[in-house]
Automatic annotation (TrEMBL):
Family: Belongs to the class-I aminoacyl-tRNA synthetase family.
Compartments reported by the entry: Cytoplasm
Keywords in alphabetical order: Aminoacyl-tRNA synthetase, ATP-binding, Cytoplasm, Ligase, Nucleotide-binding, Protein biosynthesis
Enzyme Commission no: 6.1.1.19
Subunit comment: Monomer.
Positions of the DALR anticodon binding domain: 437-560
Residue span, Arginyl tRNA synthetase N-terminal domain: 4-95
A single GO BP: arginyl-tRNA aminoacylation
Name of the protein described by the UniProt record: Arginine--tRNA ligase
Main subcellular location: cytoplasm
GO cellular component: cytoplasm
Amino acid sequence: MTPDELSGALSAALAAAVADGTLALPADAIPASVHVERPRQREHGDWATNIALQLAKKAGVAPRTLAEDLAKRLVVTPGVKAVDVAGPGFLNITLDAAAAGSLARTIVEAGAAYGRNDSEAGLKINLEFVSANPTGPIHIGGVRWAAVGDSLARILTASGAEVAREYYFNDHGTQIDRFARSLLAAAKGRPAPEDGYGGAYIAEIAEAVIADALADGDADPRDLPDAEAQETFRARGVTRMFAEIKQSLHDFGVDFDVYFHEDSLHESGAVEHAVARLQAGGHMFEKDGALWLRTTDFGDDKDRVVVKSDGDAAYIAGDIAYYLDKRERGFDDVIIMLGADHHGYVGRMMAVCAAFGDTPGKNLQILIGQMVNLVKEGQPVRMSKRAGTVLTIDDLVGAVGVDAARYSLARYSADSNIDLDLDLLASAKNENPVFYVQYAHSRTVQVAAKAAERGVRREDGFDPALLDQESEAVLLGRLTEFPRIVAQAAELREPHRVARYLEALAGDFHSWYNQNLRVAPYPDEEVTDQHRTRLWLNDAVRTVLVNGLGLLGVSAPERM
RNA sequence: GCGCCCGUAGCUCAGUGGAUAGAGCGUCUGCCUCCGGAGCAGAAGGUCGUAGGUUCGAGUCCUAUCGGGCGCACCA
């Protein structure tokens, strides 16, 4: 019996109570689906609902009285073993072992589909994340969004959405000029420019650019006049950096559907197109020789310059055009993940969204994630791209591997700052909970292998009523929750919920395993339905662990 | 000054109004002749920053306040 079926039974009980006059409520006061949840306390049964507490006041009856009535109606439902009224008016529901245990087979038969849901069904979602400037390797902050964003894309897809992963490649402005001047300076052995970048990677990129140029039969850029040389370093340096970033992300298990170049917006006329639309809407005005967007009409705290008085497009012009471009490509929801250092954009971009006649918070959703701090021996370590003291995506993967890196970045709420301890990274990687979850998975594989060796075959029998141990009820309850967890992670855009769920599931599984309830019989024992049914349960756990780890982009090894 | 995020066990963090607030790490005590001990069982450890408020019920919602992080450009 699934929570949805239980919820349906509760709705029916309510409807019946209204029909025979026991419950004096208008039909529209009855919720379409009654919320049931897993109680924290095992003594409170398999499922609990507070529906009587919610409706009692409206109906003018005591909560416990209503609860007693509902309990009587519900307890006759097939699969329901007991319904108790507790506390101020909770309904605590206990299922038959058979009704609960049947889930094991359902999950195994659903396989990869178990956990999929329709909470985002039919939506075309554009998810933009990372979008780090091509002026250096991706550092730890960007890696966090790579892990979280890619996982979110997987979760949204599992929830029925059509998702495009997109990377906005910022190759237009003065940051790129600085980058080019820095490369030139490094190539010529001159000190880094005042406002430039000084990391060791700059010298490496400069060398690579020179090698690329020579390989193409071009002149050594060091022999060119500065202006020409700088252009060579800009063009080749950006291309080079772009390729490196793409490769690093690929090695991290993250591949984008679209790498969108800011330059293309300016070259294609997309910026003019977007500005023209805003002008037509009456949202633009001229002042001090510049062209402004009146974002204050839509809640921003000040108006924004779109075209500067020198005729150049301001940065926001690209963002405006980019947003419109995404919408015109047919995306319903445009989601952008940004670090907390960019949260100043939210107000103006929401205003832009509204100026186009869209709905902020729906057509445009901006997710702000907090920063990652590096800590060494308890002291914060400042990371600076210009000083070259950065922890890059490749450093992180090299130190702990893709699985541990992705998992440990995705298991935290994006709202919380992460303190990453460099010593811990290097020394104690076994502390990562990812191994706890992966170990549970490999255990299910080994258990199944041993069972097969002893002649236990799922198709020879399944009797869910035999899953009557307490640890089995706990495990089944946990397995039931998975689709809801995925749906919730999708709706709230919070992938960490999947990770936390998997840790709990792994814990329940390890605990069950240690009861020594035997999936594989001892060598001198007969194979019974007990073994076969437990194998179904074991394999159901494996299915959910595989599906869940997959949503995080983490592997599920068969042995460790 | 204004805005956003955070404050929960010694540490790192879960907990989108429910019952006795959880996990990992660390500390202490037990558990390997049989499906892998990267595991399990148990103990210790909390005025959920503080003060008010809403509610049958608040870690969760509201207000104020303290502490920390990050922002408030004709930069990108």
